[in-house]
Design goal:
Blueprint (H helix, E strand, L loop, with lengths): L2 H25 L5 E8 L2 E7 L6 E8 L2 E8 L2 E7 L5 H4 L9 E4 L4 E8 L10
Length: 126
Amino acid sequence: MKKWDLIIIVFLIVISLIPGGFILLNKNKHYDQTYAEIMVSGKLYKKVSLSSHKGNETFQIKTDLGYNTIKVENNSISIIDADCRDKTCIKEGTISIPGQTIACLPHKLVVQIKGSNKSNVDIIAN
């Protein structure tokens, strides 16, 4: 193996690890509030607060393409029933961490967890 072959291999390994580092940094980031955005056909259908949600809530989204039943339980959300063929959205399970996503492509439905921080900035003016 030549010197440049080794340099290229090491470079490619380092480059391939960079996205994983960003994912780990974002995963460990603490948010004051978490919420789920439910998008249908690229438009916001509903925003559900997860950090302040207590108990269980189940609701159904019906479109011309089909239906999805969504369950919100404490700080998490999942799709528990759908009439799509592959049921991949159901198999995704429960999500609760900002950045996680469930998608039902046949129904053009996306559930994404997002987080926000309250800004407590004091401004001192002279």
